[in-house]
TrEMBL record:
It comes from the Eukaryota. Its main location: mitochondrion. The keyword Transferase does not apply. Its EC number is 6.1.1.2. The keyword Metal-binding does not apply. GO terms for molecular function: ATP binding; tryptophan-tRNA ligase activity. This is Tryptophan--tRNA ligase, mitochondrial. One of its GO terms (cellular component) is mitochondrial matrix. Keywords: Aminoacyl-tRNA synthetase, ATP-binding, Ligase, Nucleotide-binding, Protein biosynthesis.
Amino acid sequence: EKKQVIFSGIQPTGVPHLGNYLGALRQWVKLQDEASPDTTLLFAIVDLHAITIKQDRYALARRRKEMLASLLALGLNPKRCIIFTQSSVKQHSELMWILSCGASMGYLGRMTQWKSKLSLPSNASPLDPADNKDALKLGLFSYPVLQAADILLYNTTHVPVGEDQAQHLEFTRELAVGFNHLHSSSRPLLTVPQTLLSPAKRVMSLTEPTKKMSKSDAQQKSRILITDSREEIHAKLKTALTDSVEGVSYDRERRPGVSNLVDLMFHFDHGGAASPEELARGLRGLSMRALKERVAHVVDVGIRDTRGRYEELMGGDERALIEYAEDGARRAEVIAEGTMKRVRDAMGI
Ligand code: ADP
Ligand code: NA
């Protein structure tokens, strides 16, 4: 039995919202808490991915710090996990270049995320479009190769991701298998990782519940941050969009707003219900206003310890946060350099 290595990354987008938390970060903490002692866990703040779009240097530094404090506040333990910033481990860029020499342009062009960046329908042919080719950046096109490097550097066996990243994981596997085929003599050089699909459903925007909750939504009220105060949580839920049907019922298609609220409640406190449907049946007599208050309460109770720890970390000595990240980077680099030595050696560079 091979030892498990779990790797995942998140961009330095500042304080996470409930979508990031329920869709990804909560799973990381759970994996940490349930991992056997010989499992290695690595969690990276992937700032090299963030620069595929234009960034302000000060805002980037601030968001990186906020994300680090958030990860720690949520319960990731730097003694148990390797938590680090991607750009401080240079091997990511080096392996990316090597992998990109074996990466297919056609395959990259078929990535759903790339197509959505081009605003192409997902069934469009990959290489035709774009009369705006000069504005399209190579880094945005090739960032799945960097993602593959992130994963493959650490001999990762399992990658927890959301549905939207499953295609990139498949691409990572293809790169690893291709590399091993070309360059491994006896045992495979690169470990081919498995996808651990996050079980959570998409958390929807509070103001427009047919869209997912997202940091890029201009409406601040569309999302709850994991550090929002009790008052902010109540205010945002109060203005959440529901509908004029009387009472509570669960139907993601026809009642997206109400169902999203029930899902939120279910995630934080299912109250013994086995499913959101069952939870909704128990709440059917509630008015919208009463439902929103109940949801606000369970969300507040669910995140208030995190909020407290976050405030402590951000208000405390800055040096402590920097040291967590530097220590993580040192530990990550040892593993990454081990992989790179074997890769360089096998390639004759
Ligand atoms: P955003 O959509 O706010 O830009 P990211 O794309 O940075 O968020 O996503 C970071 C992680 O959070 C990913 O694993 C993604 O799948 C997850 N995630 C983001 N938004 C949601 C959401 N609304 N529901 C569930 N998971 C989400
Ligand atoms: Na996004």
